[in-house]
Amino acid sequence: MSTVVLVAALVAAGLVAGLFYAYACSVMPGLARGDDRTFVEGMRGINVAIVNPVFLLTFLGAPLLAGVAVFASPRPWVIAGFGFLAAMVVITAVVHIPLNNALENGGDDYAALRAAFETVWVRWNIVRALVSTAGFGCLVAAVLTSR
Asked: What residue ranges in the chain does DSSP mark as E strands?
């Protein structure tokens, strides 16, 4: 059973790391090409759309399953994977959600909203992509060394 939980955590972590990587490589650079209104309204739409059961199950499921795997088999790679995935959630809660909320509730001075949002959000998303990828990599190592 612990292997099943570990593999489920690995799959969820891979999906989340891939999502943040895709934001870093395509979504944000694509939105950056638009004018201020397009950027702000595009992010507002994305921020509403992403809060859905599939995303939340994956985003919260990765660290939760990794945490369960720690209790089932407290090995260094599993613990490290859990730590990185927990850090991903903290970064999202401390940086991205407040920025997203400010963007949503900031009115329609699109230039000011974008200026306060874009650079910080993008920079921390790259950190979040790296952290979640590190969590994924640690869980890969845990699966590969579990034999």
From this structure: none
